[in-house]
């Protein structure tokens, strides 16, 4: 193996086993796809109607228009915003599922679920301006659920989504309203993209991009509500110490990986695993049941329960290659269909659970709110049965894990800061930003992508920024990368943080009773939880009375790939953040679209995209963006 | 010249070609000595030596066949084209852009185009003949696996053909068939 695929030590350890077992991995398939089509890479292939497919010659010799007359600008813009709509649909379907469950809880129909964090529910009700006097918890839950669902289905689309207006600085809302991009309801925003990109509809690239911004902001709404309502139902995360990487899969346990995105499934699997632990021991697994996480549902249960994280997106197949994974339970998003073929080489049970996400070759156990407990029980029992079939000759355990601290919700960060200043919790953070001890804040988000050495860009950029005293937050598979690399620990703070950042993280950590510094990078959750970072930024912005685009805050998605990442990146830019992409987006076929997204949009929202595939240069540019903002604030 | 090998040439199987034009992009980029993103961002002109054409339902890239009695070599007034090391070699330094070769090529595989970025000096346009060079410059010789179009084709429609090798293989395959039939009869 002379080419480097991953910076993850456990992946390097496991790939030869995959090869030996005849398992084809994502890297093998990526290799076979080379070279990938230049037209698609540039975004200038259109398959919207059956007159096509049409391709534009990027070098101006061949066709400059599709059959219908659409040019490169129109085609690139249409393709991009369809991706944004896909991401928005994925996130908000997840959010809708949570909101509907809250409604069912309020009607006492969802056995297995309850409201674990009443204070969070009440604070959400306050935020949405819902009266609570004389209402019991269930009535409040019902009102919150109804108001939230209204953001999906509102008839009068001229009324803003409540979760939009109530969670962002006033100035930002007004700015976006002037651009005509505030969503009135989520479903309508997605449908609008599909309608306007139909053949022969919107052909103006700038108008199309504005439509994309509106849909991306609907994505923000879907994510914000998914996060907060999940907290109400399952509890708001608080700091927790756990472990990450493939070594968390244990020989003497029934190992169940929860993979996908929605805590509705993974939480119940954890509950039932605890209930059925004895059965596993009876079956011969002396350590009982060991639930581990993969991808974002892994982040969800990691933050709330300290469930160890097995791995992130790109290496999901390798969890099966350990030969000791008895079941992989999946719900939606980022689940490689290849898992079905990988598990065929082992004893692992692959279990799909959602009517909208089936994989042929997998066992399907349908999951619905009413029968959640029953289904979760069935899943755990399938895992115990599979354990009995485990073939010791095929076990390739990894010994690699790292300590990781997770669970830094907005509330948890504020709580840690209150230990320093109970009367004005944000003050210590703000003071340190103003005095330059913390130069700024970078939020890492997004996926892995085999175009990039797995986890390398994340960790390389973070080490650079740490030395330059930048406070870092992370979500999604980026958080997974840092957790696996041991960068979410106090030790990493000691090792990599610049002096002033170290001093601040130590002061807060010690005040909060951690007897040491806060971790170098704060784990804020799954990819749907990126809105937690916006909540922190909004609180800071409100406190000093400026809009988000003035803050020394930037976002970075060094290894992005999914449509969800396209949506998140676009709303980050729309909210005013300089946003780094470490993978070249499929838009270069249109100079105009590229210019608008990297330059022109600055004048509209204050945010912009920049692309940099080299980690050191990316870190320098992120730092540059932060310093420009500091100069703007005169600090 | 009796010990000289017949020329290699690029052949694409029309049964396998889907008309994606990946081979065109790859050919243009390898000769521009750049990658796709740079070429697009810098606004380079790329000049593929091949072109995907369609006739009826058949799609296939066409490029120089490296003819044995090459009409282009016959007509070139400046001696820019001739046989060399298993191919028809075009010496672009000698080319004056007269287009004679392009006119006589039965495959339409030669184009006279400028590769210069910019406008020239007003006297000459710097347009010169372009044709498939089997990527010899990029690869330092003839290497079928390394030809840009061969590498780029997702359906493996394109191959560098070693004519003698092909004939040999065809003969062996037929001989095997005959042998199989013959041994069947014996039983
Ligand atoms: S919408 Fe236009 S560009 Fe797209 S496939 Fe149809 S004709 Fe071609
Ligand atoms: S790359 Fe292959 S399939 Fe595509 S046009 Fe060329 S020969 Fe045909
Ligand atoms: S265009 Fe160039 S190579 Fe072709 S015949 Fe004229 S001089 Fe010769
Ligand atoms: S062999 Fe090289 S020069 Fe000839 S068509 Fe293919 S890529 Fe172009």
From TrEMBL, chain A:
Keyword Oxidoreductase: yes
Tree of life domain: Bacteria
Official protein name in the record: Anaerobic carbon-monoxide dehydrogenase catalytic subunit
Keywords in alphabetical order: Oxidoreductase
Species this protein is from: Anoxybacterium hadale
EC number: 1.2.7.4
Automatic annotation (TrEMBL), chain B:
Domain of life according to the entry: Bacteria
Protein name in UniProt: 4Fe-4S dicluster domain-containing protein
Organism name: Anoxybacterium hadale
């Amino acid at each position: 193996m002379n080419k480097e695929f991953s910076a993850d030590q456990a992946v390097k350890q496991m790939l030869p086993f995959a090869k030996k077992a005849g398992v084809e991995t994502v890297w093998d398939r990526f290799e076979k796809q080379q070279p990938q089509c230049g037209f698609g890479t540039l975004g200038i292939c259109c398959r919207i109607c059956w007159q096509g497919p049409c391709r534009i010659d990027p070098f101006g010799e061949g066709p400059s228009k599709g059959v219908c007359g659409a040019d490169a600008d129109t085609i690139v813009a249409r393709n991009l915003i369809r991706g944004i709509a896909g991401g928005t649909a994925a996130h908000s379907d997840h959010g809708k599922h949570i909101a509907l469950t809250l409604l069912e809880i309020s009607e006492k129909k969802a056995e297995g679920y309850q409201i674990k964090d009443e204070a969070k529910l009440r604070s959400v009700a306050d935020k949405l301006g819902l009266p609570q006097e004389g209402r019991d918890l269930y009535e409040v839950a019902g009102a919150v659920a109804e108001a939230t669902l209204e953001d999906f289905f509102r008839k009068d689309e001229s009324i803003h989504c409540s979760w939009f207006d109530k969670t962002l600085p006033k100035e930002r809302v007004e700015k976006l309203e002037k651009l005509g991009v505030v969503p009135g309801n989520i479903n309508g925003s997605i449908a609008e993209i599909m309608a306007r990109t139909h053949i022969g509809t919107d052909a103006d690239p700038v108008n199309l991009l504005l439509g994309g911004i509106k849909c991306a902001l609907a994505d923000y709404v879907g994510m914000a509500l998914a996060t907060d309502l999940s907290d109400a139902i399952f509890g708001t995360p608080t700091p927790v110490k756990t472990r990450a990487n493939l070594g968390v899969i244990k020989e003497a346990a029934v190992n169940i990986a929860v993979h996908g995105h929605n805590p509705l499934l993974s939480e119940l699997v954890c509950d039932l695993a605890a209930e059925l632990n004895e059965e596993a021991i009876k079956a011969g697994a002396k350590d009982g049941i060991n639930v581990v996480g993969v991808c974002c549902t892994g982040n969800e249960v990691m933050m709330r329960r300290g469930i160890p994280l097995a791995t992130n997106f790109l290496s999901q197949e390798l969890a099966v290659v350990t030969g000791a994974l008895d079941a992989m339970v999946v719900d939606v998003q980022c689940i490689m269909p290849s898992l079905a073929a990988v598990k065929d080489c082992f004893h692992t049970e692959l279990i799909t659970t959602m009517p909208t996400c089936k994989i042929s070759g997998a066992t399907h156990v349908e999951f619905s709110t009413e029968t959640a407990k029953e289904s979760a029980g069935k899943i755990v029992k399938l895992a115990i049965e599979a354990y009995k079939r485990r073939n010791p000759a095929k076990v390739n355990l990894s010994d690699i894990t790292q300590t990781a601290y997770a669970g830094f919700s907005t509330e948890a960060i504020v709580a840690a800061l209150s230990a320093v200043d109970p009367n004005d919790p944000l003050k210590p953070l703000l003071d340190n930003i103003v005095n330059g001890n913390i130069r700024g804040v970078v939020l890492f988000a997004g996926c892995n992508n085999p175009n990039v050495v797995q986890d390398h860009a994340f960790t390389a950029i973070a080490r650079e920024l740490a030395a330059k005293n930048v406070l870092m937050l992370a979500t999604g598979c980026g958080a997974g990368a840092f957790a696996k690399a041991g960068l979410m620990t106090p030790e990493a703070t000691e090792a990599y943080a610049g002096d002033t950042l170290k001093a601040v993280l130590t002061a807060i950590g010690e005040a909060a009773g951690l007897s040491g510094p806060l971790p170098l990078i704060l784990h804020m959750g799954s990819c749907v939880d990126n809105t937690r970072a916006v909540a922190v930024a909004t609180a800071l912005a409100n406190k000093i009375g400026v809009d988000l685009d003035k803050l020394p805050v930037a976002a970075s998605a060094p290894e992005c790939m999914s449509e969800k990442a396209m949506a998140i990146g676009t709303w980050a830019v729309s909210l005013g953040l300089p946003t780094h992409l470490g993978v070249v987006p499929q838009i270069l076929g249109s100079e105009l679209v590229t210019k608008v997204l990297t330059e022109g949009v600055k004048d509209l929202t204050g945010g912009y995209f920049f692309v940099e595939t080299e980690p050191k240069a990316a870190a320098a540019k992120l730092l540059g963006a932060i310093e420009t903002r500091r100069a703007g604030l005169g600090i | 010249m009796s010990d000289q090998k017949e020329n290699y040439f690029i052949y694409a199987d029309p049964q396998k070609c889907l008309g994606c034009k990946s081979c065109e992009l790859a050919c243009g980029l390898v000769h521009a000595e750049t990658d796709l993103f740079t070429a697009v961002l810098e606004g380079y002109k790329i000049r593929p030596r091949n072109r995907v054409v369609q006739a009826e339902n058949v799609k296939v890239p066409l490029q120089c066949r490296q003819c044995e009695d090459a009409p282009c070599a016959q007509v070139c007034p400046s001696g820019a084209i001739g046989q060399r090391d298993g191919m028809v070699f075009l010496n672009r330094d000698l080319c004056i852009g007269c287009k004679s070769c392009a006119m006589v090529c039965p495959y339409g595989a030669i184009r006279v185009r400028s590769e210069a970025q910019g406008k020239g000096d007003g006297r000459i346009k710097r347009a010169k003949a372009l044709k498939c060079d089997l990527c010899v410059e990029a690869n330092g010789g003839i290497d079928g696996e390394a030809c840009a179009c061969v590498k780029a084709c997702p359906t493996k429609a394109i191959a560098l053909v070693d004519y003698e090798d092909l004939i040999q293989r065809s003969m062996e395959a037929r001989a095997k068939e005959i042998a199989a039939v013959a041994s069947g009869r014996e039983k």
